[in-house]
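Quick question: what would this complex look like in 3D?
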Amino acid sequence: MSKYTPIIGLEVHVELKTKSKMFCSCSADYFGAEPNTHTCPVCLGLPGALPVPNKTAIEWCIKIALALNCEINLFSKFDRKNYFYPDLPKGYQISQYDLPFGKNGHITLKDGRRFGITRVHMEEDTGKLMHQDINGVRTSLVDFNRSSVPLVEIVTEPDFHNSADVKEYLQSLQQIVRYLEVSNANMDKGDMRLEPNISLSTNPDLTKLPNYKVEVKNINSFRFVEKAIEYELKRQEKILESGQTPPQETRGWNDVKNLTFSQRIKEEANDYRYFPEPDITPITHTKEQISTLRDSLPELQDKKSIRFTNDHGLPINDAEILTREKSLADYFEKAVAHGASYNVSSRQIANAIINKKLNHLEITLENLVSNIAKEAVIQTIDDSELASIITKVLTDNPKAVEDYKAGKESVIMFLVGQCMRAIGKKVNVQIITNLIKNQIQKNA
Amino acid sequence: MNNLTIKEARRQLKAREISSVELTKSYLETIKKHNEQLNAFITITEKEALAQAEEADKRIAKDESTPLLGIPIALKDLYMTKDIKTTAGSRVLENYIGQYDATTVMLLKKAGAVILGKTNLDAWAHGSSGENSDFGPTKNPYNTEYVPGGSSSGSPVAVAAEMALAASGTDTGGSIRLPASFCNVVGLKPTYGRVSRYGVIAMASSLDSIGHFTKTVEDNAMYLQVTAGSYPHDGTTPPVSVPEYIKNINAGVKGLKIGVPKEYFIEGLDPRIKELTDKTLKWYEGQGAELIEISLPHTPYAIEVYYIIQTAEVSSNLARYTGVRYGHDRRYLGDEAKRRIMLGTYVLSAGYYDAYYKKAMQVRTLLKKDFEEAFKKVNVIITPASPTLPWKLGEKTDDPLAMYLSDIFTVHANLVGVPGLSVPMGFINGLPVGMQILGPHFSEEKLFQVGHAFELANPVWKERPSL
Amino acid sequence: MKINIPHIAKLANLTIAKDQESMFETQLSSILTYIERLNEIDTTGVEETSQVTGLENVTREDKSLPSMPQEDAIFQATTYNSFFAVKGVFENE
């Protein structure tokens, strides 16, 4: 049992998939575009340019906050975060400081444990910085296509104590924002970014936070999350064991060398000198408006999956697979509704999708249902009705019965056929055959 | 062209007595004649101006008639002009070519104004005398040993010296009203948000007011007709309708309640200016206005609040000038800019925010209440625009604080956002002296009426400088 | 010393020559002393004013419009393959 407890708080940035940027009307769909082709005076920080906030981005930020059970600040505003870096064109980032849109929320993981969400706020993204050696000179190249794309920052309480929980949190968060259809949240495309703050506590009951924390940047994929955290925890443990305190700093994850390294350049006095953004009016909402927004939220994955177990009689694992993507869940439910008129059950549809790994984008739900109906063998007749049909067929066909009793095995198929015709629906042939045989034997 | 006004020029253009090209050529000549001595223009756009004048003549021939059609004007070099050099008076941008037109520039062009060039200013609009320009100071045309006032220094001089019929400026702490009064021209600081700030290089975002200079009050109203309004690129322009400013300009002042704030008439105000202001106020009384003594009790603290809020915003607004995307790097910033950036950085820094910035924002509320209370009792407030006469070049350059105190009558209006019109009152020792008329938010129409009434009876503006 | 010029200059990304430090310190200190007269006013319970328009909720619809042509955006800078080029900003490895 380690004498150290990891204390981890998470900062996640989610890039919203709005049509235009946060403070200007440049297209926000910049991925793959030629450098500096999605810019304008505003996002390029030209002299005299002014920001005007994107209404939809604000709405989506609040939706995220509501989905994370946050209180919404009815009076909110933007603030300037002042610092110098080549990818920050104005020399300040428009962000939120003391009145973020959302605060005091929580997220519940699968096993019911709650983790605190400190705040959810709106800000603009920076340009992209690349480092390259040009003619032997170390040069930084900047592309401002990404500058001012809307970002939602989600900060948790330092409630995480292991990397597995962190991974689950990220997956949950990813699912939530995808469900809300506000972001594609692809870590490897950069539209979801994680920065954990990591420290180790020797305090067993966790009443006091450690006197340092290390921020780790540049974790670009789910598969590196656990690795990076584990590496950092080990690195810090080694330092603590030697009787020293790890320096408070920002470190970058290097996914080639599988280690974190100190980013000394960002350690400069980070006095951001926040003050209210004078170029943007305060943003206010009424309780009613927030209520309406809350009601407009789609049913999220956790609730939906429980509902699927109840409404559709599915085991929880199946329900979770089917609700992983909102579009699949919607497809499934529409297929179930459609399948009702074909006597195709939710179980059958679920099995078809899961076992056959069907891509719901490649087959229409109508085709899926009819395929199942064709293959499915459904017992829709109740036993007493079946019994009376069999009795009638046997009564109507005494010669066939006599022939079968005399040893003509093949006659059974004729009798089965007659029964099938009388039933009029697809039934399990084997079951009919057995029932007929039993009846003949009983009557004998 | 002597004493030509926009109103008269429009009449002549409409009557085909003169063409815009002829008018423009004449102004370009005057600029060539006087600019070396006065240093009012940083950039003269002769080719573009003549092309614009030709276009204007075509439109006039089609009987079009907008307030500024064919009128030669100049722009303070803080206004972004596409494909034309825009320097902000600073070496940082000495070679910077504007990448887009400011909203007001677009509006002026659309109205058919002819842009003669970009005028000189204190670098980044930091100054009250014109002496902080990185391209040499502008001189006062009434006495070239004296300052024209700032930070809009070239624009009022251009109008006063017949180098343009109107010129644009900005007023963040008095940078239109003060130089207007030093140069015997009319200067308007509109209500904050009345005119779009998009494309005007930002000094202090919550204080910058986009205004202009003309010879007469009526001209001034014609110009505002073109630039006033709420436009999408600036999110701080209230959607208040734009009245026809000229329509009731002759309404007169009978029954007008004029507030005279006791805090302005104190020690430090040149007694000769006090005397001239008293005479002016008496004239209004004679016309049926009522003089009411009021108090703006927090006036003595306005400069402190201003120098905290303004420098804080300046320090942030100038952070983008690093030479990466345009211009030179920050080594090219002048001393005054560095002073203000450092002061602003300091008052926002960790541990000091509450003591300075937060405190200033609270006193700003009290300053706002001062005006709100006053305008319950009076329609307008009249004060001198400056506590002193224009000073000699070099007189205050060693003492930044002394320079800051010249704004003592003007900063209050910027902190609250109310409009102010500077109108010539007279001359003292051959130097111009102006009054400022302040009103509630969006009361420009009233200010024009009040200023116009005085000007009609006391056409001080007709006294031209001898150059 | 009231104001630490080197520290503030660093925060503000300014280069102040060593022989100018003293001048700026004197000038800024005197201005700060003047400014501190604000402490004479009691502002207990007074709200802060940061904007004078009284406007709220000025936003824009989420519509995209054409951007600046690349050439217009970069022609006045040092560039490399249409990227803005800056002297290397290092991140230790």
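Answer marked as accepted. The interface with chain B takes residues 41, 44-53, 80, 82, 84, 86, 89-92, 142, 271, 273-275, 278-281 of chain A (CB under 8 Å).
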